[in-house]
Design a protein that fits this description.
single chain; 384 residues; Dehydroquinate synthase-like, alpha domain; 2 domains; six-stranded parallel sheet; two-stranded antiparallel ribbon; 16 helices; 51% helix; binds nicotinamide-adenine-dinucleotide; binds zinc ion
């Protein structure tokens, strides 16, 4: 059988101990770096690493440190406008998915083009400036993908702009950048990476290439997430989580997320629940719904995670249940919200939520088990 894969990933990835020191090499030939970040990251002190490397390389820098979390397309436009007059020839994004997504948009924005134009025609953008992505969460995997997600208030939805031109030129994965990540953010973003791995592996778009990355991401996350989140000094576990998040991003690019992300979009768009948190809330109900259609996939995840032979003699059903139970355990141990209580969602909002969630056909169509509006309603109802 003929197989065809479309391979898109960053050209250069530096990971592991002291990876940040590679910045000097990346900066060679660049005059001025625009550093994109947000206030939380600036306050955490980790900007010292990249700024010092830029100084060492003898390049100029300009700092954009006010980027909003999970921006609307108009807020992203503001960032693009601020950047345009900077004269920088390299964008260094130091942040989570929000910062990296804004950097990607800025990197492809030729004169006169707007973010709104890209919502209408994502491929209109062409790379104008090289990018270096340094994730500070582990994470969205945005450093690996050609996607940029913006919120569209008129639709009360988050929308993905997908354009291969936005793929990063360089990526640095260094555990020091997530060392002091507050537990609530580390946990939610880590579970987002878990969602990417499991959704991409169980997706209709899954293929042998994406499976390699999704399965390895799942294995690394199952093994490392609690230690990485709960022990500030567990640098090996943190490096592994950064690697896993990156692999998750590669899996998204080669495969695609499914109903967790689809039904999560209105929770972000309308109620402004953080991306990782809304995915964590939906992970179990959606995967329990998918269980019977994905027994073989869950079973393979089990075999990858528990390669010590403990699966011998176990049925696919038992392995699938063990994987679901392990995900439940992770959510519990990390204290992540598993319901919408406290997020201002009323039972009377259910129909609007279902209507908005069902619009995300790009991702819903990836779900192995078809999701009807009644199914979506039941899934949301379970977490209300
Ligand atoms: N492009 C993609 O492929 C892709 C994939 C998944 C999600 N996303 C998008 O990414 C966004 C979410 O990104 P995220 O989950 O990484 O969170 P984020 O970038 O929104 O950051 C969340 C918070 O964490 C803080 N923070 C980040 N790193 C920190 C650090 N090291 N120390 C202290 N505080 C820190 C930030 O200041 C911010 O307040 C959403 O908009 C989501 O839709 C994009
Ligand atoms: Zn995600």
């Amino acid at each position: 059988m003929l197989e065809r894969y479309s391979l898109k990933m960053p050209g250069n990835v530096y990971c592991g101990e002291n990876a940040m020191e590679q910045m000097e090499r990346i900066l060679q030939g660049h005059r001025k770096a625009a550093v994109f970040t947000d206030r939380g990251i600036a306050a955490s002190g980790i900007l010292d690493y990249p700024l010092e490397q830029i100084r060492k390389a003898g390049a100029d820098s300009v700092l954009f440190s006010d980027l909003p979390a999970e921006p609307t397309y108009l807020q992203a436009q503001q960032t693009v406008d601020d950047f345009r007059s900077s004269g920088a020839d390299l964008i260094v994004a130091v942040g989570g998915g929000s910062v990296m997504d804004a950097a990607k948009l800025a990197s492809v924005m030729s004169d006169g083009l707007t973010v709104k134009d890209l919502l209408d025609d994502p491929l209109a953008g062409k790379k104008q400036v090289a990018t270096l992505m340094i994730p500070t969460t582990a994470g969205t995997g945005a450093e690996a993908t050609p996607n940029s997600i913006v919120s569209v208030p008129e639709k009360e939805l988050k929308v993905g702009i997908v354009n291969p031109e936005m793929i990063a030129d360089h990526v640095i994965l260094d555990g020091r950048m997530i060392k002091k990540l507050p537990l609530s953010i580390a946990a939610a973003t880590g579970v987002d990476a878990l969602c990417h791995a499991v959704e991409c592996f169980t997706s209709n778009k899954a293929n042998p290439f994406s499976d390699l990355f999704a399965l390895e991401a799942a294995r690394l996350i199952f093994e490392n997430i609690e230690t990485a989140c709960l022990d500030q000094d567990a640098m090996k576990a943190k490096d592994n989580m950064l690697r896993a998040a990156f692999y998750g991003g590669v899996a998204i690019t080669a495969s695609g997320t499914t109903a967790v992300h689809a039904l999560s979009y209105p929770l972000g768009g309308k109620y402004h629940i953080a991306h990782g948190v809304s995915n964590a809330i939906l992970l179990l109900p959606v995967m329990r719904f998918n269980r019977d259609a994905c027994l073989a996939e869950f079973s393979r995840i089990y075999d990858a995670v528990y390669a010590d032979g403990r699966g011998a003699g176990r049925t696919e059903e038992e392995k699938a249940d063990a994987v679901l139970k392990r995900m439940e355990e992770i959510l519990h141990r990390l204290g992540i919200p598993v319901s919408l209580t406290g997020f201002g969602v009323n039972p009377t909002d259910l129909d609007t939520l279902v209507e908005a969630g069902m619009q995300v056909t790009r991702l819903l169509s990836n779900n192995k088990k078809a999701v009807t509006p009644e199914d979506a309603k039941e899934i949301y109802r379970q977490v209300l």
